[in-house]
Amino acid sequence: MAKKLILLSLVAALLAGCGAMVPVVKQDDLTAQQRREVNEVAIFNAAQLVGKDFTVLNIVEGISCKNKTWDPAATRSDAIFQARYWAKQMGADGITNLQCDHPRGTTTTYNCWESITCSAEAIKLK
């Protein structure tokens, strides 16, 4: 009986300690103000930037990751939110050239049951 309890405790500890191996921000952990600020990071297409002066700060990548079997499914909208979040962190006003991959199944690279990745250029308007 004691061996079963120890084994069960070990398995539970291992499962609880296994997190995603990519930077993912849980929207529920952000305040309403922080979520609002992230959602204010504009998504521009090429036509909207014609005639505007801007600087590309960097490439951002947003990953929606279903890490545990009971987590919600990975979604494109969450991956876009993640990209906008990281753009906001570097002081960007918007993102452009947004591209999202098709959903992926289990990945050992990310430690996700399923994931969706979106990448974009973080830009600062002048």
Describe this protein's structure.
- With 126 residues, the protein is an alpha+beta fold.
- It has a single domain, classed as Hypothetical protein apc22750. Chain B (Translation Initiation Factor IF3), CATH 3.30.110.
- 30% of the residues lie in helices and 28% in strands.
- It has 3 helices and 4 strands, in the order ααββαββ.
- The chain has helices spanning 2-17, 32-39, 76-89; strands spanning 42-44, 54-66, 94-100, 114-125.
- It has a 4-stranded mixed sheet with strand order 1-3-4-2.
| Strand order, largest beta sheet | 1-3-4-2
Low-confidence stretches: 2-17
Would you identify the CATH architecture? 2-Layer Sandwich
- According to DSSP, the number of beta strands is 4
User: What would the principal axes of the Cα set say about the shape?
Assistant: globular
Instruction: Count up the domains.
Output: 1
Distance between the termini: 68 Å
What's the helix-strand series? HHEEHEE
**CATH T-level fold name:** Translation Initiation Factor IF3
Mean pLDDT: 85
